[in-house]
UniProtKB/TrEMBL annotation:
<dbReference type="GO" id="GO:0016020">
    <property type="term" value="C:membrane"/>
</dbReference>
<protein>
    <submittedName>
        <fullName>MscS Mechanosensitive ion channel</fullName>
    </submittedName>
</protein>
<feature type="transmembrane region" description="Helical">
    <location>
        <begin position="78"/>
        <end position="100"/>
    </location>
</feature>
<feature type="transmembrane region" description="Helical">
    <location>
        <begin position="54"/>
        <end position="72"/>
    </location>
</feature>
<keyword id="KW-1133">Transmembrane helix</keyword>
<dbReference type="GO" id="GO:0008381">
    <property type="term" value="F:mechanosensitive monoatomic ion channel activity"/>
</dbReference>
<keyword id="KW-0472">Membrane</keyword>
<dbReference type="Pfam" id="PF00924">
    <property type="entry name" value="MS_channel_2nd"/>
</dbReference>
<keyword id="KW-0812">Transmembrane</keyword>
<dbReference type="InterPro" id="IPR010920">
    <property type="entry name" value="LSM_dom_sf"/>
</dbReference>
<dbReference type="InterPro" id="IPR006685">
    <property type="entry name" value="MscS_channel_2nd"/>
</dbReference>
<feature type="domain" description="Mechanosensitive ion channel MscS">
    <location>
        <begin position="100"/>
        <end position="170"/>
    </location>
</feature>
<dbReference type="InterPro" id="IPR023408">
    <property type="entry name" value="MscS_beta-dom_sf"/>
</dbReference>
<feature type="transmembrane region" description="Helical">
    <location>
        <begin position="16"/>
        <end position="33"/>
    </location>
</feature>
Length: 283
């Protein structure tokens, strides 16, 4: 018992050594816990990502609190000594403060959680980690209508949440309103082609249309708005130089969106070639 007291007294008198030991043991325990959570899985599940993020944030909080308690007296003296330059400190740490308050804003508004698809400005991806300073996402290519991961990991400072609106795209993980356009040169009557095209689209979608209707109803109930619905929508307008633009919108499984688009484009080209063989050859 006496030896333990001597060791404790020695550590309290040598705060640098005590701080180093605290950092070592906390990081060691953190690494062991993360290794246990990760296991041998090649790909992390959403639950694993949540526990990993919780472990990292908890270890960081415990580490900061421990270091503060060890150096409390020195920190108090330092705080008094920098009172005169407090304004300069605030200005210099403006971005850090914004990141911290952005984290509070995210947590209080519950705008997203780990595993959600989000869009911040022109950046979109799946949230894989968030902490007091930043949010980490796996980028998803939404602007080209592909809905696949690009392989890029993006770290967003939480201060961005005050500059850009955060769009939660989580419902798009399963089904998506996929829109695309087909440009037709010349000014031909395309409306007679639409009934057969709609029938072919419905044939392509018949294997999932019942699930799509139920999922669309769930989204409408959750959002409290009247959405366009799961049925395909087609409309035509004209471009500035006289070409016609056929707009198609589908409510379909996200992973099938690109494949369905290619099938529909092929169906339209076949129908257009049959209806206007001379125009199609000239184009």
């Amino acid at each position: 018992m006496e030896n333990v007291q001597k060791v404790m007294t020695f550590l309290l008198e040598n705060k640098l050594l005590l701080s180093a030991l605290l950092v070592f043991f906390i990081l060691l325990i953190r690494r062991l816990v993360l290794s246990r959570i990760r296991g041998d899985a090649m790909f992390l599940s959403e639950d694993q990502r949540k526990w990993i993020s919780l472990t990292k944030n908890g270890a960081f909080s415990i580490l900061v609190l421990s270091i503060f308690l060890v150096w409390k007296s020195e920190i108090s003296e330092f705080a008094l000594s920098v009172t005169a330059i407090a304004v300069a400190v605030v200005v210099a740490s403006k971005e850090i403060i914004l990141c911290f308050t952005g984290s509070i804003q995210r947590a209080s508004s519950r705008s997203f959680r780990i595993g959600d698809w989000i869009e911040v400005g022109k950046i979109s991806g799946e949230v894989i980690e968030h902490n007091l300073m930043a949010t980490v996402i796996q980028e998803i290519d939404l602007y080209h209508g592909q809905y696949h991961f690009t392989g890029k990991t993006i770290t967003l400072p939480n201060s961005m949440f005050f500059t850009y609106p955060v769009k939660n795209l989580n419902f798009m993980k399963r089904y998506v309103y996929h829109s695309f356009s087909i440009i037709v040169p010349g000014f031909n009557n395309l409306y007679p082609l639409l009934p057969d095209l709609i029938q072919k689209i419905e044939h392509h979608c018949e294997e999932f249309i019942d699930v799509a209707r139920r999922y669309n109803g769930v989204i409408e109930k959750h959002a409290g708005v009247d959405l366009p619905g799961p049925d395909p929508h087609i409309h035509i307008n004209s471009g500035a130089t006289g070409e016609q633009i056929v707009h198609v919108m589908l409510f379909c499984p996200t992973e099938q969106a690109t494949h369905l688009e290619q099938q529909i484009r092929s169906d339209f080209m076949d129908a257009y070639h049959s209806a206007y063989p001379d125009k199609a050859s000239a184009a």
